Amino acid sequence: MKDFKWKDNILIFVLVLLIVCGVGYRLVSGWQAGKADYFTFQTDVGLTAEGGTIEDGRMKDSNEEGALEESKEPLVIHIVGAVKSPGVFTLLEGDRVLEAVEKAGGFSEDALRDAVNLAARIYDGQQIYIPREGEEIPPALLQGNQTQKININTATQSDLETLPGIGPAKAGAIIQDREKNGPFKSVEEITRVTGIGEKTLEGIREFITI
């Protein structure tokens, strides 16, 4: 009879031990899962232990944006007319007329804003003229606002056809030449293209770049 009770107690002890172990395992697992969820939440909102950010599914170092900015070419432009602080400013490749206006302190109160394409990209050496309301504007002054130089090494067929004296045939010849002989090293090298001579170059020189 005593042996039976001893065996019965041992069985109960083993069952209790298994229950305690099971409960402990669930508690530890739940704590670890909660910790993992917290980490996932942190990374989803864009935080990392290294101080970077998560963008488009990859970690982006906080210094990466600065490196990209440094790789851009500086562009020197001259903005005049109806801005608060007209003058010469240095911007970056890819900036637009809007950034130029902001550099110059913004529009003055009498600025004719609709006459300016704020979305146009700027180019090195450009003069941007902001007209005033009621002012008669010489076309030559507005040319710098509306004309973005065309890169003859990257321009498409349709882009090239906007140049004076360049039709579909010459535009196609430019593209074929650069594919065969490599990019142009200067705007003058465009004369190596069949059908484009010095006269054509002089007509498009102010509208092209490399």
Short description:
The chain is built from seven helices and seven strands. The protein is α/β, with parallel strands linked by helices and 210 residues long.
Structure description:
This protein has helices spanning 2-44, 64-71, 97-103, 139-146, 157-160, 168-181, 198-204; strands at residues 53-55, 58-60, 74-81, 87-92, 127-130, 150-151, 208-209. The chain is an alpha/beta fold. Among the domains are: 68-146, Ubiquitin-like (UB roll) (Roll), CATH 3.10.20; 150-209, Photosystem II 12 kDa extrinsic protein (DNA polymerase, domain 1). The protein has a 3-stranded mixed β-sheet with strand order 4-3-5. It has a two-stranded antiparallel sheet with strand order 1-2. β1 and β2 form a beta hairpin. The termini are far apart. The model is unreliable at 38-57 (pLDDT under 50).
